[in-house]
Design goal:
Length: 178
């Protein structure tokens, strides 16, 4: 099945709950219909064990909140690893060499006029170099695990909704405030 509304619409593989491709669809159609598709999420961690989060620009989902520094769609026919490398280059300005797949979770929400139905494929990326943000983010901060826990307890809205979903489901030992 191939559905699209425009030649320039980014093409995505739509998948079932088992991450099996069942067709190709334009990104705008996927977000209009709520079709399940893949997203890569990258968590940057430095040698001190600090986690980098970016503050989203005002025109993005979760505006002015901290989110995972790397996140983006996997194109039709693109490997997940290639998408992770591409998104890292685009969003934080470097090519990762140390990637570790840590899990996946389905996240479904309605935001900024879209029905997002995403299979998040989450990676840890070791990062000790400077990062360069693109237009999607307005700043970044490195957090210790204790700072994350304290922020969750005192100001949970510091982090975006998708971030909460990822950390609650993939990193529960960090998400716990106890």
């Amino acid at each position: 099945m191939k559905l699209t509304n425009s030649i320039t619409d980014e093409q995505l593989d739509i998948i079932n709950e088992h991450n099996e491709v069942i067709g190709t669809i334009g990104k705008s159609v996927a977000h209009k219909n709520g079709s399940l598709h893949r997203i890569v999420i990258g968590e940057l961690i430095n040698k001190k064990g600090e986690w980098c989060f970016v503050k989203q620009a005002g025109d993005r989902q979760d505006p002015d909140q901290y989110v995972s520094p790397i996140g983006g769609h996997v194109g039709a026919g693109e490997s997940v690893k290639d998408a992770m490398i591409r998104e890292c280059q685009e969003e934080v300005g470097f090519t990762p060499t140390d990637l570790e797949f840590v899990g996946q979770t389905i996240y479904n929400r309605q935001v900024i006029g879209r029905k997002e139905n995403h299979l998040f494929l989450i990676y840890k990326i070791k990062c000790d170099q400077a990062i360069t943000l693109n237009h999607e983010s307005v700043g970044y901060k490195w957090f210790t695990k204790d700072e994350i826990k304290k922020s969750l307890k005192n100001n949970p809205k510091l982090f975006g909704d998708a971030w909460h979903h990822v950390f609650k489901n993939i990193f529960p030992e960090i998400y716990s405030t106890t």
